UniProtKB/TrEMBL annotation:
One of its GO terms (molecular function) is metal ion binding. Gene3D superfamilies: 1.20.120.1770. The keyword Transport applies. The chain crosses the membrane at residues 205-225, 237-258, 278-295, 307-330, 342-365. This is Cytochrome b561 and DOMON domain-containing protein. Keywords: Electron transport, Iron, Membrane, Metal-binding, Signal, Transmembrane, Transmembrane helix, Transport. It holds the Pfam family Cytochrom_B561. Residues 1-25 form the signal peptide. May act as a catecholamine-responsive trans-membrane electron transporter. The keyword Transmembrane helix applies.
Length: 387
């Protein structure tokens, strides 16, 4: 069955994955800083659109750091080190915020508990220079020189973003991205590991699998079925291409869906009801489509007309629900903006191709229907009812 088509789609999927991971890897390397400051290493944090840039000086155990994180003017961001454990309580942090006039400032404080007093304090590590802060282009950047606690390069780091109210720092949200914002960072090698990393990686795999399967393969298969079959020379190739797209989309999509359910069951206390329910509905409808293929009446069968209506309405519902759910997923995962933009570009391209094909196939379809009606005495084979 149409192996070339199948392979092409797998290649496209792989290319998307590569593109997406390259986009995030580039994020921190391309950053520039005011005053011509440069840093030897950087790390794109897995959550909250944050990155840390630093130069480590082994001779005196200090690091010049720049922490950058996206935020609106009505938000704060923070970064710090916890000398004791990986987590918020016990950490010493820099928190950047701004007042009503847009003047940014940075607070140094110790977070003794998970509901800290936020009083200015001397940190648990030395701060030989800074901190200073800038807000521009929708992001804060905190600059400081720090003495790495214990004179060791492996540190428990934390970062966060939250809202301001009248210039006052408000508690951060408890979305998974906010709860997963800790990692152990090696200032010498730049490598990072965190309890959150494996889970976050699986969330990203869930997102990419589902976006490729439900967001690209399935709509492409529908476009092939709707427009290619109008050309007689494409018969029956379009059918096999359609099946190849939908089957590979379904298999990848069910894998991504299963991973999503598993992630959902693991996240105690946080359930995204609409995302989860739409996901389950998509799975049920798509599974119906697989049965539809098996129960498809013959072209001449009088029930074929009703089967077509059913097949098309379920199919279009899956495509629309998938697009909605992918955007809901972006809202939950809050990945680097590259992902969302890439998906919007793909969606717009598919839409553009569909519109273009709609325009060029209409006249052909009408001619074909006329011809079929002329030659068929009992048939109802037109392009709407065909296949
Ligand atoms: C930190 O350790 C390095 C060797 O790893 C040493 O050269 C340096 O003097 C130490 N710095 C401090 C402040 O103890
Ligand atoms: C640490 O060492 C670097 C490189 O020699 C130097 O530029 C920096 O000023 C030193 N920092 C402190 C606080 O001594």
């Amino acid at each position: 069955m149409a192996r070339p088509g199948h392979t092409a789609w797998l290649l496209l999927g792989a290319a998307m994955l590569l593109f997406a991971s390259a986009a995030t890897a580039q994020d921190c390397l391309s950053a520039t800083f005011s005053g011509g400051r440069t840093f030897g290493r950087c790390n794109s944090m897995p959550t909250l659109g944050a990155s840390l840039h630093w130069t480590y000086h082994p001779e005196n155990g200090t690091a010049d750091i720049a922490f950058r994180a996206r935020s609106g003017t009505d938000g704060w961001v923070g970064w710090g080190i916890n000398p004791g454990r990986l987590g918020m309580a016990g950490s010493s942090v820099f928190i950047a915020s701004q007042d009503g006039s847009g003047t940014a400032s940075v607070l140094m404080t110790n977070l003794d508990t998970t509901s800290p007093s936020l009083q200015p304090a001397t940190l648990k590590f030395g701060v030989p220079a800074g901190p200073t802060v800038e807000y521009s282009g929708g992001a804060y950047t905190i600059f400081a020189t720090i003495l790495l606690p214990g004179n060791t390069t492996q540190q428990n780091t934390v970062w966060q973003a939250g809202p301001l109210s009248g210039g006052n720092i408000q508690p951060h949200p408890t979305a998974p991205a906010n709860l997963a914002s800790t990692q152990r960072l090696d200032f010498l090698s730049g490598s990072s590991t965190g309890a959150s990393n494996s889970r976050l990686r699986r969330r990203n795999i869930h997102g990419v699998l589902n976006a490729v399967a439900w967001g690209i393969l399935i709509p492409t298969g529908a476009i092939i079925a709707r427009y290619l079959r109008v050309f007689e020379s494409a018969d029956p190739a379009w059918f096999y291409l359609h099946i190849a797209c939908q089957c590979s989309g379904y298999i990848l999509g069910v894998a991504g869906w299963g991973l999503g359910l598993k992630l959902g069951s693991e996240s105690v206390g946080v359930t995204y009801h609409p995302h989860r329910n739409i996901g389950i509905a998509i799975f049920c409808l798509a599974t119906l489509q697989v049965f539809a293929l098996l129960l498809r009446p013959d072209k001449k069968n009088k029930y074929r007309f009703y089967w077509n209506i059913y097949h098309h309405s379920v199919g279009y519902s899956v495509i629309i629900l998938s697009a909605i759910n992918i955007f809901k997923g972006f809202d939950i995962l809050k990945p680097a903006t590259g992902y969302k933009t890439a998906y919007i570009v793909v969606l717009a391209t598919l839409g553009g191709i569909a519109l273009f094909l709609e325009a060029i196939t209409w006249p052909i379809a009408i001619r074909k229907r006329k011809r079929d009606a002329d030659k068929a005495s009992n048939g109802t084979a037109g392009w709407q009812q065909g296949a």
